[in-house]
């Protein structure tokens, strides 16, 4: 008799973490070397010319009296230390309010999260209800599925000019854009998950003479939960991608608005900082969805 294969070892979390940190260090090093300013060579320039260039702000004096290029006017990608300095400055007073549009990063993150969370939650509830109704009727599913598949790949930002023209209110336009971004993927996945439920589950529910509401809560939704969560994750990514440019284009306070303001100020380090904040928010929310997916997943 052939010997059974040895059990596969579980992946070492410490080894994966070490590789991730090594890749991060390598990336930061390459970034630093690529963004490093060249040294200023004053050879061939008269004292008057040097004073003119210094007056224009292109160069600055160092502590030892030498000249260097002004890092605030440097073109190209800012270095990691400039982004870290921007992050320290932003998080040193994250909840300040200095006027109408000058709010701290803590407030801006909260505005984006509230704007995203409320619209996404409302759209998810509506989408799941529509998907369950469609999925419970095979005829209705076959009739409406082509329309869903046509609407699903349309970018939510493509609706924004039409919504802005018809609604004529930036706040409601932002609400509807995020709502539409969250709608179609969840409808499609929920309808597919409900329609693909094993007939044995529904037959057992009929034998037990469960009411429609109890059958929905105890049989239909748990059986379709993995497909529903997959649709929610797609909708989550689509809505998060939509909310940031919506804030930029409509002038709504949030992380996207911060990105646009830093661009107007020609502060490239601030732009990169805002991009990293968007990524950190997305990773945090995606981790929550991963945990939810593990809770509702089950072996056949």
List keywords for this structure.
single chain; 71% helix; 300 residues; MetI-like fold; two-stranded antiparallel sheet; mainly alpha; 2 strands
Unreliable parts = none
Estimated share of beta-strand residues: under 5%
Oligomer: single chain
CATH topology of the domain at 111-252: MetI-like fold
CATH architecture of the domain at 111-252: Orthogonal Bundle
| Largest sheet report | 2 strands, antiparallel
- What's the helix count? 11
The value of Rg in angstroms is 27 Å
Shape: elongated
Termini distance? 30 Å
Query: Helix fraction?
Result: over 70%
Describe this structure in words.
The radius of gyration is 27 Å and the shape is elongated. The mean pLDDT is 80. It has a domain of 142 residues: MetI-like (MetI-like fold, Orthogonal Bundle), CATH 1.10.3720.10. The protein has 300 residues and is an all-alpha fold. A hairpin with a 5-residue loop joins strand 1 and strand 2. 71% of the residues lie in helices and 2% in strands. The chain starts with 12 loop residues before the first helix and ends with a helix.
């Amino acid at each position: 008799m052939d010997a059974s294969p040895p059990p596969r070892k579980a992946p070492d979390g410490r080894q994966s973490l070490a590789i991730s940190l090594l890749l991060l260090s390598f990336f930061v090093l390459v970034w630093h070397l690529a963004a490093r300013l060249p040294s200023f060579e004053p050879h061939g320039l008269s004292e008057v010319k040097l004073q003119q260039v210094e007056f224009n702000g292109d160069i600055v004096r160092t502590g030892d009296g030498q000249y260097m290029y002004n890092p605030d006017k440097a073109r190209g990608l800012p270095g990691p230390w400039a982004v870290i300095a921007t992050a320290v400055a932003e998080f040193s007073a994250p909840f300040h309010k200095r006027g109408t549009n000058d709010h701290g990063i803590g407030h801006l993150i909260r505005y984006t999260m509230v704007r995203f969370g409320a619209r996404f939650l409302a759209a998810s509830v509506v989408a799941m209800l529509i998907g369950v109704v469609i999925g419970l009727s095979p005829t209705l599913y076959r009739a409406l599925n082509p329309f869903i598949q046509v609407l699903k790949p349309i970018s939510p930002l493509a609706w924004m000019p039409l919504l802005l023209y018809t609604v004529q209110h930036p706040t409601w336009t932002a609400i509807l854009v995020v709502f539409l971004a969250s709608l179609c993927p969840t409808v499609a996945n929920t309808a597919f998950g409900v329609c693909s439920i094993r007939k044995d589950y529904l037959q057992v529910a009929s034998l037990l003479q469960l009411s429609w509401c109890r059958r929905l809560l105890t049989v239909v939704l748990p059986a379709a939960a993995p497909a529903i969560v997959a649709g929610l994750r797609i909708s989550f990514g689509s809505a998060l991608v939509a909310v940031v440019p919506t804030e930029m284009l409509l002038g709504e306070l949030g992380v996207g608005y911060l990105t646009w303001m830093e661009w107007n100020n020609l502060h490239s380090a601030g732009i990169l900082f805002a991009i990293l904040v968007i990524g950190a928010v997305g990773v945090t929310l995606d981790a929550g969805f991963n945990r939810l997916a593990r809770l509702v997943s089950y072996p056949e």
